[in-house]
Design brief:
heterodimer, A: alpha+beta, Rossmann fold, OB fold (Dihydrolipoamide Acetyltransferase, E2P), 2 domains, about 30% helix, B: mainly alpha, MetI-like fold
């Protein structure tokens, strides 16, 4: 089964006077994970709700595999959605929560039993132990799993995830993200994933769509977007960037120039295009690397310094910092 | 809070409780008194209950009160439920619904009762069971709405989840909205039943010849004490005690239901 390709054509949505989404064109290719990334209030959740059919766009259309579904209610779209607050039914057991979508589809009760048990095992919950529990008797992580199981069991062609792992601690989040990726590859479904966490977005996405103020700012593969940010917003929101003053960059004064911290070389051994003397302002140990702030000509430059390069770096120390001009990105002003 | 140091607020509360409950307790106690005279205790008896329950007028008015109260409770919830659902969907309906719903709670019941009576008379509407039922339902809708509205607002995101899982609006209503609103619906049923069952003013103004509810019967008897065996002070005490017992058992049933629900960790 191949996932459904989703397209939004010139979609707009207003709440009162607030334009939540402005004239958006979006393609989420079938059978891949597309992430909508942006700060809160950027319109990413509204976009997801429009895809789900929970919001009706004021203008524009929503296409599933080229078929216009703009007028279809959510229950007719063949989607599954995991909500930010999970929205598990508190008056039902874990089993009944997961069986809900199947019962609505009038699946025979014995088939429901086996499918619910299978999906519980898939999300690492023992059906005999957890099936009869109430939602209030589960931990946060277990509730996330049930929410995921509840949509996976209906085998949706499109899976919509609205920051589903935001309340979890780092380790469980990494594990569940891995599970989602594996499931997606195995089932070949289309996933649209909403998050404000750039790290999560990088690790899960085939395609990333960066939004701000109700518009799409940039889209592409995560590595493409990371290496070639379209503007300063993307450069600073998606990953870190040093904004270089005209005097420092070795580029034209009228441009905005940035460089990623890992491209800045501290005490370079190989020749570099530009090199400055600076003073170490701060050093933070991060395991495999150090984060070093170096002050050059009144500007602070962030540097990621691999531990493997050796040597101790102390605050107040005088260091040399340089980079190659090919690593400096010149951006548009917007 | 510790009990050792009584504060003024606590003393105030005790005085209020005393004023509220002493007359009721005295009345219940005297309903078991084997003497015709208040202030003289001659021992325990159930004979006044026998008198009261042997009274055809009591049974008839009890029946009237129950049928009016049950119907009014159910109908007021049928009217208030869609209003509570609509007011939650958008601000516009909220702005329309609430100003229309609240006045019956604020307007003095006597004014409302007189207005309704004059209105019904001007229409030539026959006064009796139906007019009393209409009168009660008019204020019950307001109380049903304010009891229902909070419990219904809570399920919005759950409804959306159900829709994305493939449930149509009707299934969402029966499987999500209704079960989650059950505590509110039951609370509203009990409240509106009690308001109707114990109502006096509205009933007095909207009833016609030949139709009486239990509170009206007690009132008529109390106006002419001792006219018959049934209107003796003792029989009235027994009658009022029965009324209180009915009200209390409903309140207790509701409390037990809520305790059971909360006990299941299902708030």
């Amino acid at each position: 089964m191949k996932g459904v390709a989703i397209s939004l054509r010139k979609v707009s949505k207003k709440y009162g006077r607030v334009e939540a989404v402005k004239d958006i064109d979006l393609e989420a290719p079938g059978g891949s994970i597309t992430t909508l990334l942006g700060p809160s209030g950027c319109g990413k959740t509204t976009t997801l709700r429009i895809i789900a059919g929970l919001e009706k766009p004021d203008a524009g259309s929503v296409l599933f595999d080229g078929v216009d579904v703009t007028g279809l209610p959510p229950e007719k779209r063949g989607i599954g959605m995991v909500f930010q607050d999970l929205a598990l039914f508190p008056h039902m057991t874990v089993f009944d929560n997961i069986a809900f979508g199947l019962r609505v589809r009038r699946v025979p009760e014995n088939e429901i039993r086996s499918r619910v048990n299978n999906v519980l095992e898939l999300v690492n919950l023992d059906p005999s132990e957890y099936g009869r529990r109430r939602i209030s008797e589960l931990s946060g992580g277990q509730q996330q799993r049930v929410a995921l199981a509840r949509v996976l069991v209906i085998e949706p062609r499109v899976l919509l995830l609205d920051e589903p792992f935001s309340h979890l601690d780092y380790k469980i989040r990494q594990k569940l993200i891995g599970e989602v990726r594996r499931l997606q590859r195995r089932l070949g479904i289309t996933i649209v994933y909403v998050t404000h966490d750039q790290e999560e977005a990088m690790s899960i996405s085939d395609k990333i769509v960066i939004m701000n103020n109700g518009r799409i700012i940039q889209e592409g593969r995560p590595d493409e977007v990371y290496e070639n940010p379209a503007n300063l917003f993307v450069a600073t929101f998606f990953g870190e960037a040093n904004l270089l003053e005209p005097g420092l960059a070795g580029v034209d004064a009228s441009d905005i120039a940035v460089i990623r911290p890992e491209r800045v070389k501290l005490e370079p051994k190989d020749p570099v295009d530009v090199i400055y003397n600076g003073v170490v302002e701060d050093v933070v140990f991060q395991g495999p690397y150090l984060r070093v702030d170096v002050r050059i000509n009144g500007e602070t430059i962030k540097v990621i310094y691999p531990k493997i390069n050796g040597g101790r770096i102390r605050v107040g120390e005088r260091v040399r910092v340089g980079w190659n001009l090919s690593d400096v990105k010149v951006l548009g002003s917007e | 809070m510790r009990l050792t140091r009584p504060n003024p607020l606590r003393i105030y509360t005790y005085i209020i409780a005393l004023l509220l409950y002493v007359p009721v307790i005295v009345m219940i106690a005297y309903s078991f008194n084997d003497s015709k005279f208040i202030g003289e205790w001659r021992g325990f008896t159930l004979k006044w209950y026998k008198v009261a329950l042997g009274d055809n007028a009591f049974l008839e008015t009890l029946y009237n009160s129950l049928t009016v109260a049950v119907s009014s409770a159910i109908v007021s919830i049928i009217i208030a439920l869609p209003a509570a659902l609509a007011s939650r969907k958008d601000r516009l309906s909220l702005g329309l619904v609430e100003p229309l719903i609240y006045p019956p709670i604020v307007i003095p019941e006597i004014a409302e009762a007189v207005a309704l009576m004059l209105f019904l008379i001007s229409l030539g509407f026959p006064l009796g069971w139906l007019s009393v039922f209409i009168g009660h339902t008019a204020f019950n809708v307001a109380y049903a709405y304010i009891t229902l509205a909070p419990s219904i607002g809570a399920s919005r995101s759950l409804e959306e989840a159900a829709r994305t899982l493939g449930a149509g609006p009707l299934t969402v209503f029966t499987k999500i909205i209704l079960p989650l609103s059950m505590p509110g619906i039951i609370a509203a049923l009990m409240l509106t039943f009690m308001l109707s069952f114990t109502d006096f003013i509205k009933t007095l103004f909207t009833t016609g010849p030949g139709f009486q509810t239990l509170p009206l019967l007690i009132w008529n008897r109390a106006r002419r004490p001792g006219l018959t065996e049934y209107s003796s002070q003792n029989a009235l005490n027994a009658l009022a005690s029965i009324l209180i017992a009915l009200s209390l058992s409903i309140a207790l049933a509701y409390t037990a239901y809520m305790v059971k629900r909360l006990g299941r960790g299902n708030a």
